[in-house]
Design a protein that fits this description.
With about 450 residues, the chain is of the alpha+beta class. About 35% of the residues lie in helices and about 30% in strands. It has helices spanning about 15-25, 30-40, 105-115, 120-130, 135-155, 170-185, 215-220, 235-245, 290-295, 320-330, 360-370, 420-430, 430-449; strands at about 1-5, 45-55, 60-65, 70, 115-120, 160-165, 190, 195, 200-205, 205-210, 225, 245-250, 255-265, 275-285, 300-315, 335-345, 345-355, 380-385, 390-395, 400-410, 410-415. Strands 12-7-1-14-13 form a five-stranded mixed sheet.
Length: about 450
């Protein structure tokens, strides 16, 4: 199982997560192309600046969002930090209304005052963006979590929440890029460490509040947290929402064969404390899995465990089968298929089989009970062997297409991402097979020089 482990010993924010992704190997152009697509979809007028910086001696990647000539900054905390090695002190201003995380100059603030957006408008922007369906779902889930937290804190309806900067350009970029970037590393599970919240207070529009800020505290219910004593807000609402949506569990580092490490830098440089989020990517094998066969094949093959859900159906309207399959796949089932079977009383029926990650089996079972006529579901765990996979991107005359790539003993297999090809085929009214052939040709040409 390919694991992405977020080590949040200095908290997490949207820009720190993006920096860790890039530092761990996600091409910067993946994020830059996402920003370009958001600018096309909503005329946000934003751009990214990606740089290498040092935080307490650790070199990390810093991702900054610029709106016009202004760069986002951390919000005001009621203290001065100890001088770092250059002898500077850090003091930041921030107006916090409904989840604001950053400070801008008066000119940029005036622009943002015209950019307050409700959840419905944010949904429309994300839906218009030319990104994958899965990335859209992830981004929407993160914003939904933020809206629910703000609604609870302010005692208002979720749909009436109007974000200020969290709903404006910089946070839309943080969240949508986080969704696209996290998808591009192709992990099977995200795991997160306990979160270092920091301490002190922050100045919000409604007054001064202790760290964590109210929305952050609401988001982090049931999440293990601690404070190392650093006088700063280390976990922002956006950072909390990202890990709450992505991470299936919060735990110490599991046994892992690490393949990549990335450090995402925060905006501040504390004396004696590396203000970074660390991302480790690697292969983790579940307890009890016998990997002898996998090791006999190659190091490129890993052992994995999946949950299998099965139900026999002999009284379900045939029109419903396609809908149920799509619901299950939208909920990120690994695979769904039907097998014709002969059932009791000589009735023809269908065996519905769903392959699921262990942590998603419950949600998929609920769909089966809600959408089909079954009264029972059989479940079991099965071992499987999986090739390591990665995603690359190629350019066709009609747009970019992601290519899924796996290899075994030096022999690579590749296939275009179906949803990307289908979108292009529908948009340009050309045969789907032509798009798939062109994408594969472009990929092979890029590899053959």
């Amino acid at each position: 199982m390919r694991i992405g482990y977020l080590d949040c010993f200095s908290g997490i924010s949207g820009d720190m997560f993006l920096g860790a992704l890039v530092d761990a190997g996600v091409p910067a152009r993946v994020l830059e192309e996402t920003v370009a697509e958001l600018n096309r979809a909503a005329d946000l007028g934003v751009r990214l600046e990606i740089s290498r910086v040092a935080r307490a001696g650790i070199v990390a990647t810093k991702v900054d969002v610029w709106i016009g000539d202004e760069k986002d900054q951390p919000r005001l905390e009621h203290h001065r930090y100890q001088p770092h090695k250059h002898g500077h002190t850090h003091e930041h201003a921030h107006e916090n209304v409904f989840g604001l995380e950053h400070h801008h100059s008066p000119a940029a603030t005036a622009v943002l005052e015209d950019s307050h957006r409700g959840l419905a408008e944010i949904r429309e922007i994300i839906q218009r963006a030319n990104i994958s369906v899965t990335a859209k779902q992830t981004a929407l889930a993160i914003f939904q979590s933020l809206a629910a937290a703000e609604a609870k804190v302010h005692n208002v309806d979720v749909e009436s929440v109007h974000f200020h900067e969290v709903g404006a350009a910089d946070a839309i970029v943080d969240i949508v890029c986080a969704a696209v970037g996290s998808e591009s590393v192709s992990v099977d599970e995200w795991v997160c460490s306990p979160l270092n919240l920091g301490s002190g207070t922050v100045q919000c529009a409604h007054g001064e509040f202790p760290v964590p800020a109210p929305a952050t505290a609401e988001l982090l219910k049931d999440v293990p947290v601690f404070s190392s004593g650093i006088q700063a807000e280390l976990v922002t609402p956006t950072g909390a929402a990202i890990v709450k949506v992505l991470a299936s569990r919060f735990a110490p580092l599991p046994p892992l064969k690490v393949s990549a490490v990335g450090y995402g830098a925060g905006s501040r440089d504390f004396a004696g404390h590396a203000n970074v989020t660390r991302l480790l990517l690697g292969i983790s094998e579940p307890v009890g899995v016998n990997d002898t066969l996998a090791s006999q094949l190659t190091s490129e093959v890993a052992a994995d465990v999946v949950t299998v859900l099965e139900a026999n159906l002999d009284d379900l309207n045939p029109q419903v089968f396609g809908y149920v399959m799509q619901r299950l796949l939208d909920e990120v089932a690994l695979d769904v298929f039907y097998t014709p079977v002969q059932m009791k009383k000589n009735r023809p029926g269908m065996l519905l089989t769903v392959l699921s990650k262990n942590e998603q089996a419950g949600a998929l079972s609920r769909i089966l009970f809600n959408e089909t006529t079954t009264l029972g579901i059989r479940t079991r765990q099965e071992r499987r062997l999986v090739l390591e996979r990665r995603s690359e991107r190629v350019t066709t005359p009609w747009g970019d297409v992601r290519i899924k790539v796996a290899s075994l003993n030096g022999a690579a297999t590749s296939s275009p991402e179906f949803e990307d090809c289908r979108r292009i085929a529908e948009q340009h009214q050309i045969p789907l097979k032509s798009v798939m052939q062109e994408a594969l040709r472009a990929y092979l040409e890029s590899k053959n020089g």
